[in-house]
Amino acid sequence: MTDQVTAATAPVAEEVGRMYDRMTLLAADFLGAEAAHGYNAHLGYWDTPESEFTFEEATDRLTDVMAERLRISAGDRLLDVGCGVGAPAVRLARRTGAAVTGISVSQEQVARANELARSTSLLEHVSFQRADAMRLPFADASFDSVFALESMPHMPDRAQVLREMRRVLRPGGRIVLTDFYRRPAPAPDVHPLRRTMGSTTAQLDEYPLLLRAAGLRFTEMLDITDETVHRSFAFLAEQAERMRLKLENPEATCYFNPQAVIDAPLLGYLLVVARRPERG
What we know:
Blueprint: H1 13-31, H2 55-70, E1 77-81, H3 87-96, E2 99-104, H4 107-119, E3 126-130, E4 143-148, H5 158-168, E5 169-182, H6 207-213, E6 217-223, H7 225-242, H8 250-256, E7 267-275
Parallel strand pairs: 1-2, 1-4, 2-3, 4-5
Antiparallel strand pairs: 5-7, 6-7
């Protein structure tokens, strides 16, 4: 493998936003009327190898696994960093009663997420806006919890984003996120993300250090690669084949058939939980 075009290049927010504008429009074309009902654009989670969840059920399950660690309830304020088209935020608001604010650098995603909120009569509990996680447009201690589902790989600087999350989080509040990490490779320059959508991977042992540097307390880190990556990639590949998708560029391929451009055995998937100390 020699193509490392974007693997080690820090994403640029504006480029990521435009990319997701394009991917959201492509997804809407493929899904047709179903897109109006919302959809999850993240991996699924199967608790056991024997789980019979469909992919759609498994993607909801991943949202729920993260929500269990948020410890939010009715009236709490939750920030969803990298909200996609809003399906996880709407699910969280409906199941917990929390007030959810979602942000994305994609204007197309924000528009569709707000339309989803209107269609589900949850506008009083869910709202979405275009914003950059590197410079969150919210006051200090504005939220009780922060949720980031597969958005960290697109961040230009994970440390800066974590500092911003801490700033807008109330003392004692929790952050729950997922991120991709690099598993052992046959050579140092071999990277799982070959030509992908403005993404980078983390180092497995760097999260406790990143969290501490951001003023956060490390709570939990789970390697959930086995529960997520391989079955998700296999499903998406089968779906792409079944739909006879003819994808003309690497970013579209990565979105709809990631195993075609990602070395899955080298890609790990983390669930990370942290909290802001009560003092400091």
